[in-house]
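Curious: explain these tokens?
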Amino acid sequence: MTAAPTGPAFSVHDIPFSTYGSWFDISPVVAEQTHAEDLHLVSHQNGMHGVLRLVPLHPTTGARAGTRVEATPGRLSWTGEGGRVDLAYESPDTVRLRGRGLDLGVLAAARTLTPFSGTYFFHDPAAAGHVFTSYETGRRYRVTVLSGTLTDVTGAQALGSAVRGLTVTADAAGAWEIAVDELDTARPPYVSSGTFDDVVEAARRAFADFADAVAPWRSPATPAAELAAYVVWSATVRPAGLVTRPAVLMSKHWMDKVWSWDHCFNALALAPGRPGLALDQFLLPFDHQDAGGALPDSVTHSEVLYNFVKPPIHGWALGHLRRLLPAPLDHDRLAHVYDRLERWTTFWLTARRAPGAELPHYQHGNDSGWDNATTFDPERAVVTADLAAFLVLQLRELAALAGELGRQQAAHRWTATAEETRTALLGRLWTGERFVARGVASGNTWSSAGLLDLMPVVLGEHLPDAISSALADRIKAHLTPHGLATELPTSPHYLADGYWRGPIWAPATVLVEDGLRRAGHHRLADDISTRFRALCETHGFAENFDAVTGTGLRDRAYTWTASSYLLLAAAHARRGGH
């Protein structure tokens, strides 16, 4: 009998071990760019917080045991010379751990308890378990022994600075097993749902079902597809706090939010196989749309930020989303989406157009999503060509929606506004050779060596052929062996790890590839897709990548990167790629 596939292996130093729906992961990454010696239970409720340290111990000496950590979607293992410890998710809020030949210490990560911070530890006789309560997460973490015995229970009810935790060791049968569950205030004593092996198999099947749904086209020609699916699956959380729907966080490292353009790429990757989840991704920021129509900059468990916005790519995204969904949206859903998109568009046409101006502006690079791109070096409040291009596509999508809803007057109005905006874009910001940016305050214009200046290529078939060809030629200069550098590598402003001043980013890649393809530049679009897919297959799904070496940078488990790989790989497969 052939064993069931376990799914892709991965390093927990790069990708957290978690499961669909959970607000915590198991990882050594406990803060931005911070790796601890031990794996931690890391929660993302009320921020990112390492709550518990999980430490394999030598059963005779009690010293930290040397182990090798291995992970697949269903199981994480510490393996040492004398034994091993396994961990699996039984549910989104419960993990099971089993050991043989090694003990395990479960310890509060924070040593100091104050009236406002830290972790309190005690035995709860009503629940037959030991409980850690975390000020930082506002949640409790209960340890229930299923087999084996506890030793070295220390710091129970201690105040101030103390080591708090317990050690579990084997019983006469030579093994031990515990459950750790995350809860609010109280719940009945833990009851097992099955054997440890049952738990592992259920987790494996859950991921396999997800991978089959979102990447049914995968083959040996798309070797990173399953890992990309895992990054997305494991970063999905259930509704909680201010997160109103099942949500794919950008990461279960420190980028544990939903930003109001990142979500579009996750929605598109999920659309064919998980349409309900895809719609939830698209609509989540709209649940927090303000009275003026603006979307928040970001949403996470306990925080919604409005100090910046993100670019209006939502018309572009919705058009693709509707083509990728297996069934059309019904009338009520279509009307709901139209109303939200109309308010978002009106925000740009009113609150972000200076008096007498034909085109809208960003107030800061953060509004563009390209936070520190060189386009914003001369001034921060800027009229840019990418913004106008995105708005043209959004206006056209609004016109199409209005027509389908029988709102013909609105459809004509949006079509006219789209053409007026396109005309202003070409008349005000195209020099005959390139697009320029214009300062809102000064009226000065300038260009840069940044890829952002070339993003109007997203207009695709709506650009004059001469302009799309000129943009394509300039885009070629940004291509390195690994993909599109966001700043020309020859630029004096290029920085290898400069965020939007050099590294390769997934969203820019997808938007440029799509615009080129719709404008008829198929060969260049194919080249960009091929290089980006190869980059992910070699260097994973980092937040961004060194454009020259391909090395992954910053957060190493970023969902819009994984989703962009899935989008490009699926499209390549549909075109008959091998």
